[in-house]
Amino acid sequence: MSTRIELTGIEGIGYHGVFPHERVEGQRFLVDVTMSVRSSKANKSDDLKDAIDYAQVISLVHEIIVGEPVNLIEKLAHLIASEIVAKFAVKKVEVTVHKPDAPVGLKVADIAVHVTRQG
């Protein structure tokens, strides 16, 4: 049995980007995480110890958003996906990093990068 867990809009102020002002001023980043997990044990036990603790995943993602700066949101998305695969029992994780206030010279609704990683 497989279950899909979606965590959307995990927000933090990060200092990621290629321009010097992005590293000084920071900006808002939003991350969506979709995890495919085996859920039969949790379904039977109804116990959090047999499931993925959403709060722990959210905390991990937030730590990465506000942590060590990287130049590209592609790199940020890969870092988040890799850490989730390393720390949680997932079959697959999809990570979307949104940088809605990216300094691209024109107003856009959003800029996002999607990464998929197998567990």
Task: Compile the SSE list and pairings.
Blueprint: E1 2-14, H1 20-25, E2 27-38, H2 40-45, H3 54-66, H4 73-87, E3 92-98, E4 112-118
Antiparallel strand pairs: 1-2, 2-3, 3-4
Helix pairs in contact: 3-4
> Count the strands?
4
The percent of residues in helical segments reads 25-40%
- What is the ordering of alpha helices and beta strands? EHEHHHEE
CATH topology: GTP Cyclohydrolase I, domain 2
Q: What number is the mean pLDDT? A: 95
CATH architecture: 2-Layer Sandwich
How many DSSP helices? 4
Structural class: alpha+beta
Distance between the termini: 16 Å
Explain this structure.
The protein is an alpha+beta fold and 119 residues long. The chain has one domain (2-118): 2-Layer Sandwich (GTP Cyclohydrolase I, domain 2). 34% of the residues lie in helices and 33% in strands. It has a four-stranded antiparallel sheet with strand order 1-2-3-4. The radius of gyration is 15 Å and the shape is elongated.
Which descriptors would you attach to this protein?
alpha+beta; GTP Cyclohydrolase I, domain 2
Quick overview of this protein structure:
The protein has 119 residues and is an alpha+beta fold. The protein has one domain (2-118): GTP Cyclohydrolase I, domain 2.
